[in-house]
Design a protein that fits this description.
Length: 592
């Protein structure tokens, strides 16, 4: 906690946040100038009132009273205009900075290595790009800038008071330490509840998000009541944290009022005594000082609050900068291929590749195999043997630890990442669909792909009729994550996507779960169409695919234990033959 405290007002983060305001210099300076002007103008009103009462009302100079009243109205209008300009420019600046930081953060998140998503919960990244950045906005709108304005106003008002009557000022300020002590405890208390509320909100968010996503499990196992109790507990923590904050406000605000009243009473008492002692009228000073006290206390009421907002903003900025400074991004090799062919031919070479997701835990161990252009290779092996890892490495989703992967005899690190991935189409088992139309999900909103091309590709794998049966056809709105479509249908959509990209290499992760015979047939056809004329690596679960493959790579605990085609491997009567007996023979019997 002490570490967190030390960082509370870490000036480097603040400076960096303000660095984002650099492109908006004019707005920034307008805001600063307005802040100074507003502070300087604050004591003018009490001064004019004092002047009016002491000099003109007492002596009955009506003209001057009217004259000063007009000046007061003018001043008020000027102050209002300046306040508007100040509030607007500061809020504008905050929003502009937030927009820029959010764009930078999201860009960064998009380029982070996949490893980061394995270790950082999605909720955390969402909070960084949405909530934390919003808190940075508060530094401008409700934090540092208003604090500076308030402090400047306080200094100006105090300066004026001391200038008029330093003794009277000191008397009026006698109860002031109560405010300082009160502010100290108030700030501590609301700071604590702020943090608690924040944590409770985060807990509520992730709880609800996780349970809505996993609603099927919750309902299928009839654990609604247990889960509801957990929710209720978190919700109560949220309420309690909020109530503690409200309690602190309920004590602090009346305390300020009491201190203000005390200061005013002391002021009146002292001035009354002075008037009697000196036999001199002090009405002007009294009115001006009462006004000054109000001008002093008004910002004090909220300054502790603003300090907290500032602190939260700085903590949030530190978190956001941590994402922005994350060095784990895929960078292009210095020794880049410059003369890129329009299309790769698609030969693949894995040379002694080893890989670990977590240090010390080898998932692939010295894997070597070669695939000729146009060949279809099936990778088989028990669950967890490293099949998916192989395809993730080929696509450079993760960087390998040892060995080399080459496509067309060139290390894949030497191809620009975009180019490499454009040449490899991936069709996964569980196809992720975005909210949007079927068309959007096929083209991934690539404006270069026309509707006609999509329809042609769909017809190519006999999907057109199915899509046309959907309400709205290609404009059918896919609900979140595509839950309105079946697994097979989703995979078929991604087949269309793959056809459109016309890649040299196709990676296919066959669905393990059984799908209806109609979709099964469509998928079989689609696979046959897709693999034609391109290199294909299939994580195979169907015997038919394995049989058709030119080569089968058998994986066991991260090592290639056998390679060959179906017949050769069966003849060897080794690992594959046993795998065939346990996993695939049943499929053969079903077919027969
Ligand atoms: N992102 C990850 N972070 C850490 N470990 C991982 C990650 N992904 C996979 N692993 C581990 O790596 C090993 C190989 O996983 P991989 O997904 O490649 O196996 P697989 O053969 O494709 O399995 P399945 O047939 O069940 O999909 C497993 O032990 C798994 O626990």
């Amino acid at each position: 906690m002490s570490g967190a405290k030390k960082k509370t007002f870490d000036i480097t983060h603040l400076r960096r946040v303000f660095g984002y305001a650099a492109p908006y210099k004019r707005k920034f300076y307008t805001s600063v100038i307005m802040a100074i002007m507003l502070a300087l103008i604050t004591p003018v009103r009490p001064y004019l009132i004092q002047l009016t009462v002491d000099k003109y009302i007492t002596n009955g100079v009506v003209n001057m009273v009217i004259y000063i009243t007009i000046i007061q109205i003018g001043l008020l209008l000027l102050e209002t205009a300046m306040r508007f300009l100040f509030s607007f420019t500061t809020a504008w600046l905050g929003q502009a900075v937030v927009k820029d930081i959010r764009v930078a953060t999201y860009k960064k998140v998009l380029n982070l290595n996949l490893r980061q998503f394995d270790t950082t919960p999605i909720g955390t990244l969402t909070t960084r790009t949405i909530n934390d950045i919003e808190s940075i906005n508060d530094i401008f709108a409700d934090g540092l800038v208003p604090i500076i304005t308030d402090l400047l106003s306080i200094v100006c008002v105090l300066g004026y008071m001391f200038w008029v009557d330093w003794q009277l000022t000191l008397i009026a300020l006698i109860p002031f330490p109560i405010i300082i002590i009160g502010t100290y405890y108030f700030r501590k208390s609301i700071n604590k509840s702020f943090l608690k509320v924040r944590n409770a909100v985060a807990a509520l968010n992730s709880f609800v998000q996780e349970h809505l996503t996993g609603m099927q499990v919750v309902q299928a196992f009839a654990i609604e009541n247990t889960e509801f109790k957990k929710f209720d507990t978190i919700n109560k923590e949220h309420r309690n944290a909020n109530i503690k904050g409200i309690l602190a406000y309920s004590i602090f605000f009346p305390l300020i009022e009491i201190v203000l009243a005390l200061s005013t009473a002391l002021l009146v008492w002292w001035l009354a005594g002075e008037s009697l002692r000196l036999n001199q009228n002090q009405q002007g000073t009294m009115v001006a000082f009462i006004l000054c006290l109000n001008l002093l206390f008004r910002p004090l009421r909220f300054i502790a609050d603003k300090f907290n907002v500032l602190q939260m903003g700085i903590i949030a900025s530190e978190r956001v900068f941590k994402v922005l400074d994350n060095p784990d991004v895929t960078t292009d090799d210095e020794n880049m291929v410059t003369d890129l062919p329009a299309r790769l031919t698609g030969s693949i070479d894995f040379k002694n590749v080893s890989f670990e997701y977590v240090a010390g835990n080898k998932v692939l161990d010295n894997v070597s195999f070669a695939v000729k252009p146009g060949e279809t290779v099936a990778i088989v092996g028990h669950t967890g043997s490293g099949k998916t890892t192989i395809i993730s490495l080929l696509n450079r989703l993760y960087a390998i630890n040892e060995g080399e992967i080459a496509i067309d005899d060139t290390n894949i690190n030497r191809y620009p990442l975009q180019y490499l991935r454009r040449n490899i189409a991936v069709v996964l088992q569980d196809v992720f669909l975005f909210s949007g139309s079927v068309m959007d999900n096929i083209t991934l909103r690539d404006p270069q792909i026309t509707r006609e091309q999509v329809i042609e590709a769909a017809k190519h794998i006999n999907m057109h009729d199915f899509i046309m049966q959907l309400p709205g056809g290609y404009d059918f709105e896919v609900k979140e994550r595509g839950s309105t479509l079946s697994l097979g249908q989703r995979q078929l959509l991604s087949f269309i996507r793959a056809i459109l990209y016309n890649p040299s290499i196709l990676i296919l992760d066959e669905a393990t779960s059984s799908i209806d015979t109609e979709s099964e047939l469509l998928i079989q056809n689609a696979i046959d169409t897709l693999v034609k004329g391109r290199t294909s690596i299939v994580i195979a679960h169907r015997l038919s695919t394995i049989r058709k493959a030119d080569k089968i790579i058998v994986l066991d605990r991260g090592q290639v234990v056998e390679t060959g085609n179906h017949r050769e491997l069966l003849r060897e009567n080794g690992f594959y033959a046993r795998l065939y007996e346990t996993q695939f023979e049943k499929q053969e019997q079903e077919v027969n």
